[in-house]
Design goal:
Elements (H helix, E strand, L loop, with lengths): L7 H10 L13 E2 L2 E2 L1 E2 L12 H15 L3 H4 L9 H11 L6 E3 L3 H12 L8 E5 L4 H13 L4 H4 E4 L10 H11 L3 E7 L11 H10 L3 E5 L18 E4 L14 E4 L46 H17 L1 H28 L6 E3 L12 E5 L3 H10 L2 E2 L1 E3 L3 E4 L8 H15 L1
Parallel strand pairs: 3-13, 5-6, 5-7, 7-8, 8-9
Antiparallel strand pairs: 1-2, 4-10, 9-10, 11-12, 12-15, 14-15
The chain binds pyridoxal-5'-phosphate (PLP).
Length: about 425
């Protein structure tokens, strides 16, 4: 990368020019030896905003003051609490307001959406997904196929990279979709793959999915709050996200769904129903017949988990202030800097006559990745990883040899990336 330098002075200069640098102050960093750790695992669990406690405390106070009447009298009435999150979530996903709602947890939502959008019959029953998908997603698609009486080994079709490659080529994904065409029921992709960090070409793939007559679903666990999304325009049918990774809502934080507007009032679409999905005008009259609320809200089952949603609200307010476009612009620079640092470590080792120690497996094209870089550590990876954590560099490890690091634009700095590189280089020795 032109213009970058692997020096602390250069990193400081970049931080000085960063208009988002101040946002770091809004988060708590875990401490080690009296200092902030170098936190590179916002892709697993985002840091806690300092404001979160106030948001949660406010609901605890209202609960103390009002008891059950808080449903209508809390400062943010619990009856409609989920609706306070809608506009900000819709913004992050590139959705219309009635296409999204926060509810449940992620794997639960994936199942609920597949109940509606994976409707296999004898001819059309296959599910295409990545081979390297998150285990929970794998179990979800396998058990969905089995639930409908199909053999998962036949019904679930995996996308694998070419020999010697680590990420999927869009042309290969589309070829696979065409190959299974008339037997394909749905395609369910991690919009950003959790393992490689690959951000798929969602729009182009979606066109092929719909041409084949299948539905198109996304798991946004690693995409929401990481990359700019335009789910409505991309014509995605269904999607779900978790909010505890890039969206900083805390462990087990509430999930959410997207259902495209075109399915808004389709009575032919079966769903598993619950009272919170009933039309809010009659919800508390407890009608004997379920009348779904319009749009995504009609998929809700249970009353809003307000404490968890209040924590998400704290973070969404920060995202709104920072702006996803500014975050994405910083993210590209910050991740490019990380890439540059890793490459310069490789170069200096090779100049010393040694083997190249690190191979980045995330896409090189910044348009096809978010902030995460996954890298193979070629020798003694596990001990390199353990050594880094001991030094206060929090990264994550996937067997057998992959380290993942995610400089998050909301709270990581160029100095963090420089320091990461310094410790990586030392740990490789
Ligand atoms: C993090 C993650 C999950 C976790 O699922 P939960 O139901 O929230 O425990 C599932 N799928 C993907 C792709 C993930 O990245």
């Amino acid at each position: 990368m032109k213009g970058f330098e692997n020096t602390l002075e250069f990193a400081w200069e970049m931080d000085d020019q960063d208009s988002l640098a101040g946002f770091r102050e809004k988060f708590y960093f875990p401490q080690m030896d009296g200092r902030d750790v170098i936190y590179m695992t916002g892709n697993s669990l985002g840091l806690q905003p300092k404001s979160t406690q106030d948001y949660v405390l406010r609901e605890l106070e209202d609960w103390a003051s009002w008891g059950v009447e808080g449903h209508f009298h809390a400062r943010m009435p619990w009856f409609e609490y989920q609706d306070f999150l809608t506009v900000q979530i819709a913004d992050l996903l590139g959705a219309q307001n009635d296409e999204v709602v926060a509810m449940n947890s992620l794997t639960t939502n994936l199942h609920l959406l597949m109940v509606s959008f994976y409707r296999p019959d004898k001819k059309r029953y296959k599910i295409i997904c990545e081979y390297d998908l998150f285990p929970s997603d794998l179990y979800a698609v396998q058990s969905q196929a089995a639930f409908h009486g199909f053999n998962p080994d036949d019904a679930v079709v995996f996308l694998k990279p070419r020999k010697g490659e680590h990420v999927l080529r869009t042309e290969d994904i589309i070829a696979k979709i065409e190959e299974h065409g008339s037997s394909l029921a749905t395609v369910m992709l991690g919009a950003v793959n959790y393992y490689t960090g690959q951000f798929f070409e969602i729009d182009a793939i979606g066109k092929a999915v719909h041409k084949a007559g299948a539905t198109y679903g996304l798991n946004l666990a690693h995409a929401a709050g990481n990359v700019p999304l335009r789910l409505h325009d991309w014509n995605v049918d269904y999607a779900c996200f978790c909010s505890y990774k890039y969206l900083n809502s805390g462990p087990g934080g509430v999930s959410g769904i997207f259902v495209h507007e075109k399915h808004k009032n389709n009575p032919a679409l079966p769903r598993f129903a619950g009272w919170w999905g009933n039309d809010p005008d009659t919800r508390f009259q407890m009608p004997r017949k379920f009348v779904p609320a319009e749009g995504a809200r009609g998929w809700q089952l249970s009353n809003a988990p307000v404490l968890s949603m209040s924590a998400l609200k704290a973070s969404l307010d920060i995202f709104e202030e920072a702006g996803m476009n500014r975050l994405a612009a910083k993210s590209q620079k910050l991740t490019a800097y990380l890439e540059f640092i890793i490459r310069s470590i490789n170069e200096s080792r090779m100049n010393a006559g040694l083997d190249e120690p690190v191979e980045i497996i995330s896409p090189a094209d910044s348009g096809q990745r978010g902030c995460q870089l996954s890298m193979i550590i070629r020798k003694n990876g596990k001990s390199v990883y353990e050594n880094m954590v001991k030094k206060g560099v929090i990264v994550d490890w996937r067997e057998p040899d992959v380290m993942r690091a995610a400089p998050v634009p909301l709270y990581n700095s160029f100095e963090d990336v420089f320091t990461f590189g310094m410790h990586l280089e030392q740990s490789l020795q």
